[in-house]
Amino acid sequence: MVAKRYAAFQKGDVTPPEVFFKRRDFMKLGVGGAVLAGMSAMCAPKPQESQDVLKIPLKRPDVFPTKRNESFQIPADIPRDLTPRMTAASHNNFYEFLAGQGGQVYRYVDKFEANPWKIEVTGLCNNPMTLDLDALFKFPHEERLYHFRCVERWAMTLPWSGFPLAELIKKADPKSEAKYVRFESVNRPKQMPGLASASYYPWPYHEALRLDEAMNPLAMIVTGVYGEPLPIQHGSPARIIVPWKYGYKNPKSIVKIEFLKTQPKTFWMVQPHEYGFLSNVNPNIPHPRWSQATSYWLHSEEPFPTPILNGYESYVSALYPDEPRTLQKPLHKGETAR
């Protein structure tokens, strides 16, 4: 049974970013409130749909719910309200299931199998290994409240459960020449319809961090949320969370962790002027197609100023001594983002 603090229900669906921004403009005209209120009531998930949204693909009563680590608090300049569980599960970016847009990913996950599962740890390390779910859940787990920010400007606050990525890295024992950690997501076209519908993307999904970033205490391997194992749309059974970076730097359903000497290309660097390797949350670095100065809560659309490094400056600022502190110009094609 999930703790009562996670039982909050938020009705209404969340639109893709381009529609979302237009709807906010519509609201500013002062003519859309009543219409949108009616639409919200009409679109509220029905009871059976609610069960589908919150479906958990595996059970680990020996692990969940996990104890909250109060050492990790939401940054002081971020409101502490927890994002309603239904809202967080109803709108996700997981292109392997729903390509080209964020949305109701849960509608496309019914064929996906999260158990059994294996994660290969390989590359420049002295202790390569393959972790099954039992080995993964043997790592001491804890819950942390983290602020999460998508590059599309929406934000949420979630109680993730998992363990520090650094603990797995220490166990793998990287070699001295290892400077980067690459993550690879699962690639199952028969179970993930977005793979087939968007064959033009460089599948499988892959992301990477510098080794010093991956060793930061904030970086986590996450296996649960809201006191239970991850739903598929959140990246079951295991994903990466680095809360000072944009959401796409947090790969889901990972099957491979590789230690490398040189910086690898990442999935979204096919558009290098829009998405760079670092991809830190920074209001001073506009996306070429929109400003990043303002964020919006996923559950309410209320705006708030975007804090540099997503509010986690005290944890990670030493990693980025040249992080821009003044407003930069949007990049154009041919330029390379940070």
Write up this protein:
The chain is of the alpha+beta class. It has one domain (4-319): Alpha-Beta Complex (Sulfite Oxidase, Chain A, domain 2), CATH 3.90.420.10. Helices cover 19% and strands 19% of the residues. It contains 9 helices and 12 strands. The chain has helices at residues 17-28, 33-43, 47-53, 85-90, 133-138, 165-172, 193-197, 211-214, 313-316, and strands at 118-123, 129-132, 142-149, 154-164, 180-185, 206-210, 220-225, 228-229, 239-241, 254-260, 294-297, 303-305. Strands 3, 4, 7, 8, 9, 11 and 12 form a 7-stranded mixed beta sheet that branches. Strands 2-1-10-5-6 form a 5-stranded mixed beta sheet. The longest helix has 12 residues, at 17-28. It is globular. The N and C termini lie far apart (43 Å).
